[in-house]
């Protein structure tokens, strides 16, 4: 089969690799029908995630069909259409028993496209399948469902829930990329008084309005003044960092009110200064986190019911073998207007390639 393989900082290629196989009794092999690219993949390519070894197939989000299942798999079977979660969960370790799947110590956590081969391929092996893939309702299109593999649960769990958004709150989201837009949308589920989106790109701020932002501000035009004006000088109750840069994290700590919450979602490749000389007296709660995906079943039901704005998030689609072009478009979002790019098989190609290969 072919896959998009990381070859070291700045280098990756769509190339032939061995077909994945069921290696453990709880594994499944999924034929990938739709896959997307995450900002974390760009961080890996930049060298910001040094634990990813050269030769790893990238990607941790996909929709596809189960083609093989190990003897211990009970939740799905060959022929089932499934969502491949960005988080793998063994279900037995201390953290999994507490539903903190992102910290799994039993061979799970964020492993796809990180510690083992990932989803940007024609096929992917998924360990611990019973807690790591989700059967999909037929009504949910693949391009919509694939957004439930990572960005929506991440925005909701690490941003909205960790930030403890409550009815009547003022919520500021710094960064209106895909994760930030998903945070805007899922914050709205909890009836805040207002949601303010902050970004450097006017196009993304326009998108934020579509996803539910009540006010927007350009990051280089004193967003603190807008937040202060809308809160009588108090500051936002919850500020969500959705970029992963030192300057945006520090901005978040300036926008939040005393006693408020800063919820960091962004993947940081450089140190950020924590100004405790200013913050120690302000009773702040600052949270970080890796998504656990415990909310995925709920979000899937909401998406199937049309309660999540998934379709507008997908701005570009490509065939599966156009991975290099898709990365280029996604990495130049300021020029291309890309939010999420989705790559998929042509409809005629969805019948078993494995069978055609003699697998």
TrEMBL record:
Entries under InterPro entries matching the protein: ADH-like_C (IPR013149), ADH-like_N (IPR013154), ADH_Zn_CS (IPR002328), ER (IPR020843), GroES-like_sf (IPR011032), NAD(P)-bd_dom_sf (IPR036291)
PROSITE patterns named among the record's database cross-references: ADH_ZINC
SUPFAM superfamilies: GroES-like, NAD(P)-binding Rossmann-fold domains
Molecular-function GO term, any one: oxidoreductase activity
Coiled coil regions in record: none
Pfam family, one: ADH_zinc_N
Keywords: Metal-binding, Oxidoreductase, Zinc
Domain Enoyl reductase (ER): 8-343
Cofactors required: Zn(2+)
Stated family: Belongs to the zinc-containing alcohol dehydrogenase family.
Record-given protein name: Alcohol dehydrogenase
Native organism: Streptomyces griseoviridis
Lineage: Bacteria, Bacillati, Actinomycetota, Actinomycetes, Kitasatosporales
């Amino acid at each position: 089969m072919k896959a998009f393989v990381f070859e070291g900082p700045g280098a990756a290629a769509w190339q032939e690799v061995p077909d994945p196989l069921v290696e453990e009794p709880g594994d499944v092999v999924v034929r990938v029908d739709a896959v997307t690219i995450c900002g974390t993949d760009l961080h890996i390519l930049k060298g910001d995630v040094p634990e990813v070894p050269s030769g790893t197939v990238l990607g941790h989000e996909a929709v596809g069909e189960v083609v093989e299942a190990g003897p211990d798999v009970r939740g799905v079977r060959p022929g089932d259409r499934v969502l491949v979660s960005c988080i793998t969960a063994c279900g037995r370790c201390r953290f999994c028993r507490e539903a903190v799947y992102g910290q799994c110590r039993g061979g799970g956590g964020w492993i796809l496209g990180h510690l083992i081969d990932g989803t940007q391929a024609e096929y992917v092996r998924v360990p611990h399948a019973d807690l790591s893939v989700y059967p999909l309702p037929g009504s949910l299109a693949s391009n919509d469902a694939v957004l439930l593999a990572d960005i929506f649960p991440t925005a909701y769990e690490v941003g909205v829930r960790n930030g403890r958004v409550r009815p009547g709150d003022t919520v500021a989201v710094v960064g209106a990329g895909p994760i930030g837009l998903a945070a805007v949308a899922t914050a709205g589920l909890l009836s805040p008084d207002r949601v303010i989106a902050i970004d450097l790109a006017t196009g993304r701020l326009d998108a934020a309005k579509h996803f539910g932002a009540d006010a927007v501000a350009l990051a280089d035009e004193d967003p603190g003044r807008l937040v202060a004006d809308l809160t009588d000088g108090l500051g936002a109750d919850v500020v969500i960092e959705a970029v992963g840069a030192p300057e945006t994290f520090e901005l978040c700590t300036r926008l939040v009110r005393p006693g408020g919450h800063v919820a960091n979602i962004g993947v940081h490749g450089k140190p950020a200064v924590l100004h405790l000389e200013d913050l120690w007296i302000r009773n702040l709660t600052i949270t970080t986190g890796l998504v656990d995906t415990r909310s995925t079943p709920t979000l899937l039901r909401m998406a199937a019911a049309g309660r999540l704005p998934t379709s507008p998030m997908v701005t570009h689609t490509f065939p599966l073998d156009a991975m290099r072009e898709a990365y280029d478009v996604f990495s130049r979002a300021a020029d291309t207007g890309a939010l999420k790019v989705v790559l998929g098989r042509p409809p005629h190609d969805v019948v078993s390639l494995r069978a055609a290969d003699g697998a």
